[in-house]
Specification:
Radius of gyration: 23 Å
Largest sheet: 5 strands, parallel
Structural class: alpha/beta
Order of helices and strands: HEHEEEEEEEEEEEEEE
Oligomer: single chain
Strand content: 25-35%
Length: 165
């Protein structure tokens, strides 16, 4: 009888320790998020460069900016799965450089928060020069949602254009 009671006590102590450890992990994650640090699954962009942005997009579904600046894209960013880009508290502009659109959402949901999308350009494809694309029907100078969803919150759109018929 004494051994059974001791085993029950040890089991209760083990469960209590596991619950306490779990709660401690939750508190640490919440404190990090409250202090402006990303949750463990988020990628944080600390340098407003194209390569830092692309690395973050490939490594995570949630991208949090911790820098001020203009990121001029080499190409449009194509979205194939759910992605969130959050510039809250920072002054971040994603620019198409007046040569291509900024985002093409092929599938999934793109969520943008507290960003500026600027200088995106979609033009009719020119077979001779090999330039342009997607603007023939006026398809999204800044963002073209082909087969997905778009959610925006506190996003500014500046100087984006779709040129074509």
């Amino acid at each position: 009888m004494f051994a059974r009671k001791k085993n029950q006590t040890l089991l209760l102590q083990s469960r209590t320790a596991l619950v306490a450890l779990f709660l401690l992990a939750v508190v640490v994650i919440c404190l990090n998020v409250a202090n402006g640090q990303a949750a463990p699954s988020a990628a944080v962009v600390t340098s407003c460069t194209y390569s830092a942005l692309i690395d973050a997009i490939y490594s995570s579904d949630t991208i949090i900016f911790a820098c001020n600046g203009v990121i001029t894209l080499d190409n449009q960013i194509e979205i194939w799965s759910d992605k969130t880009l959050d510039g809250s508290g920072w002054n971040v502009t994603l620019s198409g450089g007046n040569s291509h659109r900024v985002f093409l959402v092929s599938s999934g949901r793109l969520t943008l928060r507290s960003l500026t999308i600027a200088n995106g350009k979609a033009t009719v494809y020119d077979c001779e020069s090999g330039k342009g694309g997607g603007g023939g029907a006026g398809l999204g100078g800044a963002i073209f949602v082909d087969n997905g969803e778009l959610s925006i919150d506190r996003v500014n759109f500046n100087n984006n254009q779709a040129i074509g018929g």
